[in-house]
Amino acid sequence: MQDRFGLPVTGASSAALAHYVEGLDLLLSANAGALEQLDAALAQSPDFALAHAARARLLQMYAQPKEAKAAADVARWHAAMATDRERGHVEPVALLIEGRGADAWAALERHAANFPRDALPLSLALGVYGLLGFSGRVDHHQAQRALLERMAGDWGDDWWFLTYLGWSRVETGEPAQGTPLLDQALALNPHNAHGAHARAHGFYEMGEAEAGRQFLADWLPDYDRASQLHCHLTWHQALFALQLGDADAALRLYTQTIQPSAATSPPLFTLADAASLLWRLKLYGHEVAAQAWTDVGELAQRAFPHAGIGFADVHAVLAAAGAGGDIGARTGELQALVQAARLPAGRVVPAVARGIAAFAAGEYDDAARLLEDALPELDRIGGSHAQRDVIVDTLIVAHLMAGRPEGAAAALRSRCDSRASHLGDAWLARIH
């Protein structure tokens, strides 16, 4: 028997395989129901290693580390009696869940060389929270694109692969090349939430805020609120609203879907979306209720009590700064991790944290200096261009508050030289 990608499968009945294929597609498209399909597959065939591996990955994505580790151990056990392909499929998943990112990447590269159409292991490297996105590499967007371009001949017109290939082109400064692939991916699978997400980035990078807002308004009503990307796609919707000057709409979306008490997404997604949207509202001069900041700060402390994931740390600092809380302890932890060479993103994370703390304290000269120094390595924290723009916007406002419009203009020009020029328009108007 074979899976949807033409690869051999053992240890499964035909009914189990059907459930697995459905569950994997739901996982790869960020739709609810994947866990139920994988559980149904395992009820039919308890020895099905690939289903255990997919289940482990899904549990990890939803921040259930103990359960994910247990599922990965079972997957390894059954894969030991399966084929080389199935062992190679399971191993990078298990290594990632164990926190051995470098080993997982090495295992994935070996496996992809022999099985380039094996989607789940390949997916571990992709996206802004994948092995490359969180590798600490300043060129992680370019590395993902190079990986995908190299494999394009093996994939053809597959909706999942076209999604990531198109998005990689959007994030490497060629949205006009990426968006046609994303449109094609969505035509092949209209329920592909990763495709809708990547398309939202295309609208953002090309300066098409109104078109992006309308696209999401049309697409989101049919997307299950319990699905992984519902909160984040609403964040994109709110970001478009802010770009269009509609702060009231952004706040409504925040209250309905993005705030921690309403979101159904994994903790990292919720923290990043909530903290960055509230911070943007603050930068744009809009009032945010103190309780909103308190709620996000509590989520940060509950889900990420200690430093170690640079992207989460930056947003935890935004939350603490917005709530008027203490940032010193996390900044100290970050510095210790840098000194011990245990923080992949390196010194840029504590530098950004100190810059945010200085901004919150009204020390705008220091904030501008720290964030300016961090800018060349900002990509190392992970995330997308749209997500990291909140740091660039903070730098711009710090320059303005310090009475240096020329510094703000220089930061704008730097961003507009490499990205869509619309990202400077609103700020340039403020400077003038």
Descriptive report:
This protein has 432 residues and is mainly α. It has two domains: 111 residues, Alpha Horseshoe (Serine Threonine Protein Phosphatase 5, Tetratricopeptide repeat); 224 residues, Serine Threonine Protein Phosphatase 5, Tetratricopeptide repeat (Alpha Horseshoe), CATH 1.25.40. Helix 13 runs parallel beside helix 15. The longest helix is centred in the middle third of the chain and has 17 residues. The model has no long low-confidence stretch (mean pLDDT 94).
Supply the key terms:
70% helix, 2 domains, Serine Threonine Protein Phosphatase 5, Tetratricopeptide repeat, 432 residues, 23 helices
Segments where pLDDT lies below 50 for 5+ residues?
none
- Please tell me the CATH architecture of the largest domain by its name: Alpha Horseshoe
Largest sheet features: none
Round the Cα radius of gyration to an integer and report it.
21 Å
